[in-house]
Write a structure and sequence with these properties.
By secondary structure, the protein is an alpha+beta fold. The protein has helices at about 10-30, 35-45, 70-120, 160-175, 215-220, 225-235, and strands at about 60-65, 65-70, 135-145, 185-195, 200-210, 255, 265, 265-270.
């Protein structure tokens, strides 16, 4: 037991010593130590991770770990610009077509309107008054509810009779002259007599029409037409019931008159 001697363990020290010597030799000989990828990235650009380090490799780049081709980027940009220009051209073409269609529609409407004005010829608007020579006459009576009868109205020569006759003739003349259907045929109106009953007035209407016009006599210048125009104007008159020339619509009476050869101052009477 006494003869056994314990030897100190030097293997670990020898290994450490060997590693230190090797490192010193490498530093002495001028050789730089090999760097790992992480070390190289930290030494070259400590702010970029290994995935973000751009590497120039014949037009290829690595960005965020993905390879990007510079030519493909340029091509994509050109395609985007071309697509935008094509879209603008399509929109401009659509607007041009729309404007052209609107202009064409307006042109067609204008031409049609001009053609209608040039071609349309209203026969009713063209007539020769000299051809209206055949008289068509009506007579009747109506009642003035706001007039007080006085004996002077019985005399056609009295001032009261002349004044009231003139006012009524003007009213009836305006009534028929402004009628679209009868205005061109209307000739004259005469207030012949006044009678008691508030004031009862007798009137005579005279129209002129061309000869040999049976339809005109049966329709336009019929008793129903002339009467209805008169009565409608009475319903449309001023609502002032106290007006001195107010004619009661229900009192209107009308018949077809006959023309006689008797003439006074160039006016036919019937």
């Amino acid at each position: 037991m006494d003869s056994i001697e314990l030897q100190p363990v030097q293997s670990l020290d020898n290994n450490n010593h060997h590693a230190e010597n090797t490192s010193k030799q490498q530093m002495t000989s001028g050789n730089r130590p090999m760097l790992t990828t992480n070390d190289a990235a930290e030494e070259g650009n400590p702010l970029l991770s290994p995935e973000q380090v751009p590497v120039d490799n014949g037009g290829h780049h690595w960005v965020d770990g993905q390879e990007v081709n510079q030519e493909s980027i340029s091509l994509n940009v050109q395609n985007s610009i071309a697509n935008k220009e094509m879209t603008c051209m399509v929109h401009r073409r659509r607007w041009m077509i729309l404007i052209f269609l609107i202009f064409l529609i307006l042109l067609v409407i204008g031409v049609s309107f001009a053609v209608c004005l040039g071609i349309h010829d209203d026969i009713d608007e063209k007539y020769d008054p000299a051809l209206f020579e055949l008289p068509r006459c009506f007579n009747g009576s109506f009642r003035l509810t706001n007039q007080i009868f006085i004996p002077d109205l019985l005399s056609p020569a009295s001032n009261q009779s002349k004044t009231l006759s003139s006012q009524l003739q003007e009213k009836l003349s305006d009534l028929y002259s402004s009628s679209p259907a009868l205005g061109r045929y209307f000739s004259s109106v005469e207030i012949s007599d006044f009678r008691n009953g508030s004031v009862q007035a007798d009137y005579r209407l005279r129209f002129l029409m061309p000869r040999n016009n049976t339809e005109l006599e049966q329709f336009t210048l019929s008793r129903e037409m002339v009467y209805n125009v008169f009565r409608q104007s009475l319903y449309d008159q001023d609502p002032e019931l106290n007006h001195p020339l107010y004619i009661h619509p229900a009192s209107l009476d009308m018949q077809v008159g006959s023309v006689t050869s008797e003439s006074r101052s160039g006016v036919l009477y019937w």
